[in-house]
Amino acid sequence: MAAYLDHNATTALDERVLQAMLPYLREQYGNPSSLHQPGRRARAALDTAREQVAALVGAHPSQVVFTSGGTEANNLAVKGVAARRAPGLLALSAAEHASVMGPAQALARQGWQLEQVALEACGQLDADSLQSVLASRPALLALMMANNETGVLFDVAEVAPAAREAGAVVLCDAVQAVGKLAVDFAACGAHLMSLSAHKIYGPKGAGALIVDKALDIEPLLHGGGQEKGRRAGTENVAAVVGFGKAAELALAELQQRCTQMRELQRHLEQRLRAELAKIVLFGAEAERLPNTTYFAIPGIDGETLLGTLDQAGMAVASGSACGSGDVDPSHVLLAMGVDRTLASAAIRVSLGKDTRREEIDAFVDQLKTQVKTLQGFGSLACA
Length: 383
Hints:
- The protein is an alpha/beta fold.
- The chain folds into two domains: about 5-10 and about 255-370, Aspartate Aminotransferase, domain 1; about 15-250, Type I PLP-dependent aspartate aminotransferase-like (Major domain) (Aspartate Aminotransferase, domain 2), CATH 3.40.640.
- Helices cover about 40% and strands about 15% of the residues.
- A seven-stranded mixed sheet has the order 2-8-7-6-5-3-4, with helices on both faces. The chain has a three-stranded antiparallel sheet with strand order 9-10-12. A two-stranded parallel ribbon has the order 1-11.
- Strand 5 (about 140-145), helix 6 (about 155-165) and strand 6 form a beta-alpha-beta unit.
- Helix 1 (about 15-25) packs antiparallel against helix 8 (about 235-250), helix 3 (about 70-80) packs parallel to helix 4 (about 100-110) and helix 9 runs parallel beside helix 13 (about 355-380).
- The longest helix is centred in the C-terminal third of the chain and has 26 residues, at about 355-380.
């Protein structure tokens, strides 16, 4: 049995989403900036999608800026805030996604200073480090709601008031959280929130940045008045419609999906602990997403194990797919104080709304087989 267990990397396009998109890939091809009837129909479709995405995260439709995905949304947030300020301090957690770290590092080459909030061994924010960073009064504080590797949750709502008092604009990367947790933009206290469609069974190439009405940011793209001047370029109507439909379904089915994934996660981790004695589960002491399990087996190289599992039909990850070309261990695990050798052994399993118990059992059975084989090779090499 083959099993796709890499839903934090991407998800399958929901058939209901595809059906919503098809008219805008065929007969409904109007430009939403045009004033004629085809254009107005496209504009109406965008307006509906904007309402659907806003409802998913408790925002107002006027706060939704459509982008090409989470990476563009994070770049727009970080660079857009920095462009309206003199170079100062940018703060981000040591667990942030590359699409937040990358633009921050680019700004560091333009005179900005960077400071990271350290992590505890469980993957949560270190309170003393956070307090020290806020005392430096950063212009921006970036905190993801849920980590894409460990699944560990950050309590953004708890941190945001102190960050605002320190004068920081708060960016919350909620790409991994939406569809798996109840997310409320206003309640979390962030000024900015990034989202992605393909993490919630929508199409690739669509995302959004939720922007506080009182916040002014500089666009990345200039040349048109789309998205209220915050993102020039004709909108990808079909993809945005798909994003809206995926958001509508994610909200309607949230409780059912979460309950099912949590039960499967519990079953998976019970089997892993019971049948692989030396296994290490990262972030297990912290509150986590209901679908993410990140582990390592000492003495087994993660990339080698990933390859053998792939050959057996098991699609899992060794970390973030966006950084899959990297050879270094996970920066998140290293920030948690995990030994480099153990971090190199990490494997991530991320469940989806359609994952079945039989797939979990097939994965664990294959994992045991592959580990035994690799351990045998290790014993021969040492003989």
